[in-house]
C-alpha cells in the first residue's frame, strides 16, 4: 500500500466521524374518534414504564448489596495481604541490615558485586496491596442495570392499531450544512 493511499484511508476515517448528527422526533396524530383506545394505550404505557422503573430500582438495590458483599469479602483478603506485605518488608529489611553490617565490617562496600546485591535486594521489595474502594465497586456493579425504553414500541403499536398515525421527523443537530 502506498503512502498516499494510507493518507486517503486515514482522512476518510476522520471525515466520517465529522458528518452531521441527527435526532428523530415523533409526532402523534389522532385520526380516530375513539379516545378510549388512545387512553388504553396511554395506560398500558404508564403501567409498563412503572414496571420497568421498579425493575431498574430493584436492580440498583441488588447491585449495591452485591457491591457491599464484594467489598467486605475483599476487605478480609486485603487485610491478609497487607499483613503478609508487612512481614515481607520486615524480612527484607533484616536481610538488608545484616548484609550492610557484614559489608561494613569487611570493608568491601565499594566492590561492584556488593553494589549489585544491594540493588537486587531493593528491587525485590514487595508490592503493597491496593485498598478497596466501595464507590468503585458499586459503580462497576450497577453497570448491569439499564433503564429500558421498550415500552415506547408497545405504545406505538397500540396507537397505530387504534387507526392513528405516527410521523417521524429528522432534525440535524450538529455538523449541518
Please characterize this protein's 3D structure.
By secondary structure, the protein is mainly alpha-helical. It has one domain. The protein is built from five helices and two strands. The chain has helices spanning 3-16, 35-106, 112-123, 134-141, 151-161; strands spanning 21-29, 165-174. The protein has a two-stranded antiparallel ribbon. The model has no long low-confidence stretch (mean pLDDT 80).
Give the end-to-end Cα distance, rounded to a whole number of Å: 34 Å
Question: How large, in whole angstroms, is the Cα Rg?
Answer: 33 Å
Please identify the structural class as seen in this structure.
Answer: mainly alpha
Beta strand %? 5-15%
Can you tell me the residue ranges where pLDDT is under 50 for at least 5 consecutive residues?
A: none
Write down the domain tally: 1
How would you characterize the largest beta sheet?
2 strands, antiparallel
Query: Within the largest sheet, what's the order of strands?
Result: 1-2
The overall strand count is 2
Provide a concise account of the structure shown.
The chain is mainly alpha-helical and 177 residues long. The chain has helices at residues 3-16, 35-106, 112-123, 134-141, 151-161, and strands at residues 21-29, 165-174.
Keywords:
single chain; 177 residues; mainly alpha; two-stranded antiparallel ribbon; 2 strands
Amino acid at each position: 500500500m502506498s503512502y498516499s493511499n494510507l493518507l486517503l484511508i486515514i482522512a476518510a476515517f476522520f471525515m466520517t466521524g465529522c458528518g452531521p448528527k441527527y435526532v428523530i422526533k415523533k409526532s402523534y396524530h389522532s385520526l380516530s374518534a375513539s379516545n378510549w383506545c388512545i387512553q388504553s394505550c396511554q395506560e398500558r404505557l404508564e403501567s409498563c414504564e412503572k414496571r420497568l422503573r421498579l425493575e431498574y430500582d430493584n436492580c440498583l438495590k441488588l447491585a449495591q448489596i452485591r457491591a457491599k458483599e464484594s467489598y467486605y469479602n475483599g476487605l478480609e483478603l486485603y487485610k491478609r495481604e497487607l499483613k503478609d506485605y508487612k512481614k515481607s518488608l520486615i524480612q527484607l529489611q533484616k536481610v538488608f541490615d545484616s548484609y550492610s553490617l557484614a559489608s561494613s565490617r569487611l570493608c568491601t562496600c565499594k566492590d561492584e558485586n556488593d553494589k549489585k546485591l544491594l540493588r537486587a535486594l531493593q528491587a525485590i521489595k514487595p508490592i503493597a496491596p491496593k485498598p478497596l474502594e466501595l464507590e468503585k465497586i458499586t459503580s462497576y456493579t450497577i453497570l448491569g442495570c439499564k433503564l429500558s425504553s421498550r415500552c415506547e414500541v408497545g405504545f406505538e403499536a397500540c396507537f397505530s392499531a387504534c387507526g392513528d398515525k405516527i410521523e417521524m421527523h429528522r432534525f440535524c443537530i450538529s455538523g449541518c450544512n
